[in-house]
Amino acid sequence: MTVRPVERPRRTFGTQIYLLEVWRGLAITFRHLFVNLGRHALRALGVKTAAPGAVTIQYPEDPAVLGRRARTRHRLLKRGDGAPRCTACLLCETICPAKCIRITAEDAPDPRIEKRAKTFDIDLGLCVFCGYCVEACPVDAIRMDAQDVELSAYTRRDMIWNMPELLGDVPKLPRV
Ligand code: SF4
Ligand code: SF4
Fold first, then answer.
1. DSSP secondary-structure letter at 80?
2. Is pLDDT above 80 for 176?
3. Buried-exposed string 124-160: b where 16+ CB fall within 10 A, e elsewhere
4. d(CA 112, CA 155)
């Protein structure tokens, strides 16, 4: 392996005193301000061909509208009879790069299914939202389309979602 040293760029007197950089930063800020102001003004005057100006979303009072295909929190799906679709094949747990899925399996009462998940936990504090678990599932039992992105919690333990919560059977409440 060859190591190529990267030389630090020389700092000139102009860079050292930062004044020029401050003025450059201000110039960029004001350029955006006036370009957006102009675009909004043209739109307000009815010029439909003007490019739309940037808008500030007033989150959290005004939550952003997510795209239909946005990758959000996981949810587990059910079959027609209301039972979870998951057959505890462990493919999602195996492929997960963050190792944040924990499944325990048990015999399913239906002999055509063989196994089902007894417990199914996802630690969203570790998840990197790559979507591999969804891709790996052979029975479409897990999706990342709950449209839920507000996943913060006060403890690490509360970042773990269990099976009833992922199925939507119970609301996610802090553990006591
Ligand atoms: S989205 Fe990626 S990191 Fe998160 S649970 Fe699925 S496979 Fe694991
Ligand atoms: S890949 Fe699908 S069926 Fe297999 S354990 Fe995961 S969610 Fe269940």
1. T
2. no
3. bbebeeeebbbebbeeebbbbeeeeeebeeeeeebbb
4. 40
Per-residue pLDDT reduced to its tens digit, 61-119: 988 888 888 999 999 999 999 999 999 999 999 999 999 999 999 999 988 889 999 99
| The length of the chain, given as a count of residues | 176
Ligand 2 centroid–CA 116 distance in Å is 9
Task: State percent of the chain over pLDDT 90.
Answer: 69
Looking at the CA of 120, which ligand is closest? 2
Provide the 10 A C-beta neighbour count for residue 101.
Answer: 21
Distance CA 101, CA 73 (A): 13
88 lines ligand 2 (CB under 6 A): yes
Bridge partners for 160 per DSSP: 123
Burial of 11 (0-12, 13-18, 19+ CB in 10 A): exposed
Q: How many Cα atoms sit within 13 Å of 65 on the Cβ side?
A: 1
- pTM, full prediction: 0.75
- Around Cβ 122, how many Cβ atoms within 10 Å? 27
